[in-house]
Design goal:
The structure holds two protein chains of two kinds. Chain A has twelve helices and 19 strands. In chain A, strands 1, 6, 7, 8, 9, 10, 13, 14 and 17 form a nine-stranded mixed sheet that branches. Chain B contains 40 helices and 25 strands. Chain B is elongated. Classes of the chains: A alpha/beta, B alpha+beta.
Chain lengths: 458, 1171
């Protein structure tokens, strides 16, 4: 399909199908004028990763119970914390879980994640994440859109806008979560970017995309009808030949027809062999849901989807939010996600996809080293852990550190904006140059902030 | 793409406009971001300022910074290229300009250092948009025949300069389709088309326009355009936020907007009501302007997170959102940019921002911050009087419902009691015997199971179990223990029959009335009273039929059990010590009577109540009984605030007294020892406060006074009217029990004790010590059931109590009744059912703003704002007086005289300033927006940004002409729209000649009408309209299901996307997130999938096919196809199109070929594009 659009038309809408076009004035400016408008965009810089899988853990996993061991916290269990939280001085709470060194790198991981721990040589654990918002809505929005209050395009939208997508027959950005998520569509929305870049949210894993099947007619008959439609549209176009949009829309029906064939296949995990099902934990009810999400993520990136975000919402919309019941809650969450995540990392590596796929794990913030009640921890934005793996990331390393109790990030602080700058950098995008003009100024994912964390680059 | 074409290419720059654009994109941002902090107005390091071309040429201490045309001689170039000869700029290495940026500066200086503004500094007051509105003269147009009205002159003048030939006038079909969609968002019907075609008069089009402008569908269309720029959503989040923190009544604001457009509410008034409608209320407090209140919903639906823990930040955030929407919707200015620093491009300082912020900080969206999710400000949309009336009615209904429920329960209870008593008389003997047999058998270690035994005896196993439990209860009932212990079956049968006969006798002797109506009966001599370890009553058995036992309320203790000499007899009494309370769950009967045997302590404080069965708050409902120390009485009776109190003097001596109090149709009456001591006829019943659901003995009544001190022997309450004879009988019974004149000897054969206890087996640590009862009969071997009627009577009471094997819980009682009994109750239920179904009287309310900052914050009341440095509330700066942006205070010749803000938040003054005829922006921004919606693009294409970074108008004189017309028309929006759509430019065909396309590819000069894709709402509304299903009713809360037939304006949207109807997001409809300047028009495959496969289209296509076949005889294929085209595309089909249609509908293999064909037509480009 070859459709010629002038630049202004491109700006007004977003091209045919899911084909995403980099539209920023700057990118457009720097592109050669003869380049076809619908091509995949060449990034600013050499790309280390081609695609992203973001494993989002809503609610805020506790750093001191997962990837940031604190022996001093264990020793000081029950003592008052020197730091105030919301004006209160609370008691330190030792982690109920033991940490052990794993892999060749000897990185310490808590016993909550026995399977992920086996992949530790692939992980780059950032122990010095900081965010601005101690609340779920603002924290999630900041992590996923770079802004804690106002409507802004999501990370996945920016990436798709900047790079386009490799498979025109599937959405470029897909978010998958079995339950509702806090702040809803804002987390994956395109805000002021054209609607093409919004994430497609899949909550029913059995019926991932709508309207892929006609309830009324068989495929052949639909073919006949689309042919008739094309003839009618051609008659309409005869006296309107200058309007490229009309041709683009004719093309969109052709694409839709092809998607009906391709998309169900992409989402159909029943085609996977038993060994793969076992690898992702599909045969155990405890791991099945997140396992399905992980397996879907692999099938989608394999088929050229640019950005896949998985929301772990098997138990409520923020399952990691253990103000109480830390032990049972974190254990349950870890159990549900650990094996599938390890399976995903293994599988990506086995297929040679890991080198070009950036995998990100984390929540909107961490949890306090102090206790809330007897067996809980509060929200904690001042220092928490996330990890990266795959495309362009140095595996088997720790970046940054929190203080002796796991409170403040004191070394190599990585703000959410810095993480975003780094993710874009790995994808070959310069966070300062990936802009979109809206409301009188150029907007970026990182606002006026962000530094690429060079230490984590391979 | 002016910048794009320039920047994409090389330095082959042409016109000055391109050079200006180059400056704006490449140079100015760097100067502002990197250089200005040290070389601007506030600080000019080394004497150098960089905020104007002149300043750069003039230079600083080191000489000229730039030499236009000579980059190599310009000091600035050496500084930014970091030559060793000069100080590197900026000094910080990490902020050094990138090589390409340095190259841009070089190119800029090379091409003459073009600086767009006519005057020097950034803070220009000569930006076109800030200049007063001109009344431009009409340009001289050569082609006057083309001109229909004045605005055509401006358009044609530019075209002539470019040798553009306007497109011919559109054909009438295209025109009616265009104007109908444009003004109403709906397609024209075939009849409307025909009427227009048939009307050959020159005024036909004008009449069509007027008809459409006055259609109610107009407001639904144009109101939506407005909602786009005020970031409207129906709610923030319908799932995770509590109701009070979400703006779920936003739809009232949406409906107000629709109505305002339909009424052509003058635009100045439209603005004023949205900003300050709450301050425009009638002076008379008994009146209310609900519309104006609702209008402030525009501010109230601010975008912020109501659960933010940092409430300062939260308030600052919604203030920022309000400033943003006011700036962009009304002024076309990005005011919110100045939150953290002076606006980088526009002459808006951080002080200007905080002057406005002071106005909005002094306006509350939330009443006051609270922990967790903060509620929003809401007000009722009725006057105080109306609200009071509704509240009163609600209260009355609630009360009546409680009364009826109580009456119903009483009626059910009476039926149940009848059933219970009949069971005692008919089946108790047999059931008792079966249970006794089973216990005997079991004692003999027979292996028979309970179930087997029950089956063998044709007894229900559950019933048998209940009997076993009854027989085993503590303290045991001797007569039953004896029966159980009887080994001889014959004797056992005889005893059981004997018991049954005596029970029947008790029943026969019972007074209908007292037996059936006793609701409460507490006796101090009740052997079942259980004490706690402190000797205080823990559980007090209620002797009344159907009644549950009483307990002290949580946290309080019960009275002590002790003995007193009463008329010479040592009798048990309950001693209340001023702390003790017993509580029994029960509503006050509206009609009834109460009997009390008691004596107040001599030191009882005044106001102490022996009975506190009143509402705690204001003395509106219920009953209280208040003795004085000398034994005087004050009976409190209330019916919804009216009282029927009785005050009676003390008796001669303060001794134990028997009191009867009745309240019914005769009024309230008080007797002491059978003598009338007071009456009050003012009320015929008492009301019960549904909130007070317990009879409290010894509890303080309303006002929380002291508690009762003294001794209580017995308390009874009867429901319903009790006649005098019955009252006397009850009094006799009580007198006999408590006031027997002659002492009874230890050896009396007549036991007073109600029940024989098996004292050898304490039931628990709280078994009462029964030594107080001197006449308790020890178990004498010979006596069987002969020791008195009292024993059997008590057994009878036990069988009527919650311990009875025949007991059924209140909730299940109705179902346990016989059909006949239930039928008797039906009539009573009718009013009750009606009342239950009556919808709760609703007080309509709206989310609004109110004057004065949130209570309990530093913004409470009216406060000027403090500048937040870097936008951070944690770093406050100077305080700025509330006011409007300084540089926009009007020009010298036409100043905007805004009164100073002396009281209140200043929103009224802000509205006055915005709507002042000399404000250059308000009218321009509006007419530009109207133009945008008629032509797809505004004259200024950045319709929410008229600042320096916004685009310049294509036709500045036309913009001012329209703005002037708006002011002249008294801010009539419809007048401007009428002028626009009646123009020749609007009536052009959308077909462009090759020459026009060549000269003006972007159609800035409008030598053709742009072809437009329908918006999301219009697509769905068209589908419903052409298939004949559209419901044009207006208003009310939004709906989620896209298949509902109402217009798409009412599809639900939320800020977070939860519970947002999914249709809109598919076709670039509003997401509810932020201000929408202009809708995108994406063309993506999911849209095609939706049209091809969604079930909405299944229904619409089928309905359209049915409509076509209904309207045209089925035999005439060609006419039917023609009808389909007229309905869907507003024109007849061509021969080729008919042929395609014929092929599709003639396929014999497709059952619903017409439905499929209709769907194809609905999928065509023509259906969703308007020429």
């Amino acid at each position: 399909m070859s459709i010629k659009l002038n630049r202004r038309e491109v700006l007004n809408r977003s091209g045919t199908g899911f084909a995403a076009v980099a539209l920023s004035a700057l990118l457009a400016a720097e592109a050669s004028a003869s380049e076809p408008a619908l091509a995949i965009r060449t990034p600013h810089l050499p790309a280390r990763a081609k695609r992203v899988i973001f494993l989002f853990m809503p609610g805020g996993p506790s750093q001191v119970d997962t990837f940031d061991p604190k022996p001093q916290l264990t020793l000081s269990d029950g003592q008052l914390s020197p730091k105030l939280y919301l004006g209160q001085q609370r008691k330190l709470l030792a982690s109920p879980w033991k940490f052990r060194k794993h892999g060749q790198c000897g990185l310490e991981v808590s016993e909550l994640f026995p399977h992920t721990a086996n992949c530790v040589d692939d992980l780059c654990v950032i122990r010095s994440m900081v965010t601005d918002d101690p609340n779920h809505p603002g924290g999630c929005l900041l992590m996923n859109t770079g802004e804690r209050v106002f409507s802004r395009p999501s990370l996945g939208s920016w990436v798709t806008y900047g790079l386009g997508t490799e498979n025109q027959n599937l959405p470029g950005f897909i978010a998958i979560g079995p339950g509702p998520i806090i702040e809803g569509a804002r987390q994956y929305g395109s805000s002021f970017l054209p609607a093409t870049y919004q994430g497609t949210f899949v909550s029913d894993l059995k019926q991932p995309l709508r309207n892929l099947e006609s309830s009324q007619v068989p495929r052949q008959r639909q073919r006949v009808e689309i042919d008739a439609l094309t003839r009618l549209n051609a008659l309409h176009c005869e006296s309107r030949a200058d309007d490229d949009r009309l041709n683009a829309r004719i093309g969109s029906f052709e694409l839709a027809f092809r998607m009906q064939a391709e998309a169900p296949e992409a989402f159909d995990i029943s085609r996977e062999p038993r060994t793969i099902e076992t690898l992702y934990g599909l045969d155990d009810p405890k791991t099945e849901m997140f396992g399905r999400q992980c397996l879907l993520a692999r099938r989608l990136v394999e088929r050229g989807v640019r950005f896949v975000q998985l929301y772990h919402t098997t138990d409520g919309f923020q399952p990691w939010d253990q103000h109480g019941g830390l032990k049972a809650g974190h254990e349950k969450n870890a159990l549900a996600t650990d094996l599938p995540i390890a399976g995903l990392l293994h599988d990506l590596r086995a297929r040679g996809l890991l080198d070009e796929t950036l995998v990100i794990w984390g929540g909107e913030f961490g949890r306090t080293p102090t206790a809330e009640g007897k067996d809980g921890r509060d929200h904690h934005p001042y220092g928490f852990s996330m990890w990266l793996a795959g495309g362009g990331v140095r595996g088997g390393m720790v970046h940054g550190a929190t203080d002796e109790f796991g409170w403040d990030a004191i070394e190599g602080r990585v703000h959410v904006h810095d993480l975003h700058a780094t993710i874009l950098h790995l994808l070959g995008l310069d966070h300062q140059r990936l802009t979109y003009n809206y409301a009188g100024r150029d907007f970026r994912l990182t606002d006026v902030y962000g530094q690429v964390v060079r230490e984590v680059l391979a | 793409m002016l910048f794009g074409s320039l920047l994409a290419g090389s330095s082959s720059v042409a016109g000055s406009e391109d050079l200006e654009a180059f400056f704006e994109v490449k140079i100015r941002p760097v100067l502002v971001a990197v250089c200005l902090r040290c070389h601007g107005e506030s600080k000019s390091s080394a004497g150098l300022r960089i905020d104007s071309r002149e300043a750069l040429v003039l230079g600083g201490e080191s000489g000229a910074a730039i030499v236009p045309g000579r980059p190599d001689e310009s000091l600035l170039m050496r500084a930014i290229a970091r030559h060793e000869s000069v100080s590197a700029m900026p000094p910080e290495q990490e902020q050094a300009l990138r090589p390409e940026q340095v190259a841009h500066f070089s190119e800029w200086i090379q091409t003459g250092a073009v600086w767009p503004a006519k005057t020097a500094a950034f803070a220009t007051d000569k930006h076109w948009a800030f200049e007063p509105i001109n009344r431009p003269a009409l340009p001289n147009v050569r082609d006057v025949s083309w001109v229909t009205n004045e605005l055509d002159c401006f358009i044609r003048f530019k075209q002539e300069a470019l040798d553009l030939i306007p497109a011919p006038q559109a054909d009438k079909r295209s025109l009616i389709r265009r104007i109908t969609f444009d003004l109403t968002g709906l397609p024209p019907s075939p009849d409307e088309i025909q009427e227009f075609l048939d009307d050959a008069s020159p005024a036909a089009y004008e009449q069509l326009v007027d008809r459409l402008l006055s259609s109610p569908n107009y407001g639904q269309r144009w109101g939506r355009h407005w909602l786009d720029v005020v970031r409207y959503a129906d709610a923030r989040d319908l799932i995770q936020l509590p109701i009070e923190s979400d703006f779920r009544e936003a739809w009232r604001y949406r409906d107000w907007v629709v109505s305002a457009w339909n009424r052509d509410l003058p635009y100045d008034e439209f603005i004023t009501q949205q900003l300050a409608g709450d301050l425009q209320q009638p002076a008379d407090p008994s009146e209310i302007d609900a519309e104006a209140l609702v209008a402030t919903g525009m501010l109230a639906i601010a975008d912020f997170v109501p659960g933010d823990v940092d409430k300062q930040q939260m308030i600052a955030d919604y203030v920022n959102d309000e400033i943003d929407v006011v700036g962009r919707a009304f002024l076309g200015l990005t005011l919110a940019c100045a939150r953290c620093h002076d606006h980088k491009f526009d002459p808006i300082s951080i002080e200007d921002y905080y002057a406005l912020a002071g106005i909005f900080f002094s306006t509350r969206v939330i009443p006051s911050p609270v922990l967790g999710n903060t509620p929003l400000v809401r007000v009722p949309l009725l006057t105080a009087t109306e609200v009071q009336a509704i509240l009163r009615q609600t209260q009355l209904d609630k009360q009546r419902l409680a009364e009826l429920s109580q009456a119903e329960q009483t009626a059910i209870d009476l039926e149940f009691l009848k059933q219970l008593e009949s069971q005692i008389a008919t089946v108790a003997s047999r059931d008792l015997l079966v249970a006794a047999e089973y216990l005997n058998l079991r004692d003999e270690s027979s292996p028979v199971t309970l179930a087997e035994f029950a089956t063998a005896r044709q007894q229900d196993a559950a019933a048998l179990e209940r009997w076993l439990k009854f027989l085993k209860q503590e303290p045991a009932i001797t007569v039953l223990s004896r029966l159980v212990a009887e080994k001889d079956p014959v004797s056992r049968t005889r005893q059981s029959e004997d018991i049954a006969n005596r029970l029947a006798l008790v029943r026969a002797n019972r007074s209908e009335q007292t037996a059936y109506h006793a609701a409460v009966q507490f006796r101090a001599d009740d052997p079942r009273i259980t004490l706690d370890t402190a000797g205080q009553v823990a559980v007090w058995p209620d002797r009344a039929a159907l009644a549950e036992d009483a307990q002290p309320p949580a946290g309080l203790h019960g009275p002590k059990l002790t003995t007193q000499l009463i008329h010479g007899n040592s009798l048990p009494v309950l001693r209340f010590d001023g702390e003790a309370v017993l509580q029994s769950e029960r509503l006050v009967p509206s009609i009834g009577s109460m009997f009390v045997v008691f004596r107040p302590a001599a030191d009882i404080p005044s106001g102490a109540r022996i009975i506190g069965w009143e509402d705690a708050a204001v003395g509106q409902h219920g009953i209280g009984l208040m003795p004085s120390a000398a034994g005087g009485l004050h009976a409190i009776l209330r019916r919804s605030g009216a009282n029927g109190d009785i005050v009676a003097p003390p008796p001669a001596r303060n001794e134990f007294q028997l009191i009867s109090l009745t309240w019914d149709a005769r009024g309230s009456t008080l007797y002491r020892s059978g003598e009338l001591i007071g009456t009050n006829k003012s009320i015929d019943a008492v009301s019960s406060d549904p909130a007070i659901s317990a009879l409290r003995i010894g509890e303080a009544g309303s006002g929380g006074g002291p508690r009762f001190r003294g001794d209580l022997c017995e308390l009874r309450v009867y429901v319903g009217t009790i006649d005098d004879a019955t009252r006397v009988r009850v009094e006799d019974e009580l007198r006999n029990r408590w006031f027997k004149v002659e002492p009874v000897s230890e050896t009396s054969a007549e036991p007073l004790s109600p029940m024989i206890l098996d004292s050898a087996k304490p039931s628990s640590s709280t078994v009462p010590q029964l030594s107080f009862n001197p006449r308790r009969t020890t178990e004498d071997n010979g006596s069987t059931i002969d020791n008195g009627a009292t024993i059997i009577e008590d057994l009878y009471h036990e069988l009527l109590s919650p311990r009875s094997p025949y007991w059924v819980h209140a909730a299940d009682r109705l179902n346990s009744l016989s059909l006949e009994a239930r039928n008797r109750l039906v009539a009573r239920r009718e009013e009750l059912e009606l009342l239950k179904k009556k919808p709760a009287a609703e007080i309509p309310q709206a989310v609004v703003v109110q004057d004065g900052g949130p209570v309990g914050t530093k913004h409470e009341g009216f406060q000027d704002a403090v500048v937040y440095l870097r936008g951070n509330p944690a770093t406050p700066g100077e305080r700025v007086p509330r006011g409007v942006p300084g540089m926009l205070a009007g020009s010298d010749s036409t100043p905007i005289t805004t009164p100073p803000i002396t009281s209140g938040s200043g929103r009224r003054e802000l509205a006055q300033w915005l709507t002042h005829p000399s404000n250059p922006l308000t009218a321009r921004v509006l007419v530009n927006r109207l133009w945008q919606h008629h032509f797809g693009e505004g004259l200024v294409r950045t319709s929410t940004n008229f600042g320096l970074r916004g685009e310049r108008p294509s036709h500045p004189e036309l913009l001012d002409h329209l703005a002037g017309r708006l002011l002249d028309s008294g801010w009539s929006i419809k007048a401007i729209q009428r002028e626009i759509v009646l123009s020749s430019v609007y009536q052009q065909s959308s077909h462009a000649s090759a020459a026009t396309r060549e000269t003006d590819p972007e159609n800035r000069w409008l030598a053709r009408m742009p072809r437009r894709r329908l918006e999301s709402e219009a697509i769905r509304d068209s589908l419903l309209a052409v298939s004949g299903q559209l419901d044009r009713s207006a208003g009310g809360p939004g709906f989620l299901d896209a298949k509902m037939p109402q217009r798409s304006l009412y599809l639900m949207s939320t800020r977070t996307g939860s519970k947002t109807a999914d249709f809109n997001s598919l076709f670039d409809g509003p997401a509810g997130g932020g201000i929408i300047e202009r809708r995108t028009q994406s063309i993506v495959a999911p849209q095609a999938l939706y049209l091809l496969n969604d079930s909405l289209l299944d229904e619409v296509s089928a309905a359209l096919a049915r409509r076509v076949s209904r309207e045209v005889d089925s035999g005439r294929l060609e006419q039917r196809i023609t009808r389909l085209y007229e309905l869907a595309l507003a024109r007849p089909p061509s021969a080729a199109e008919i042929e395609i249609g014929r092929q599709l509908v003639s396929d014999p293999n497709v059952g619903d070929a017409w439905t499929r064909y209709c769907r194809v037509i609905l999928c065509t480009n023509e259906f969703i594009y308007v020429d």
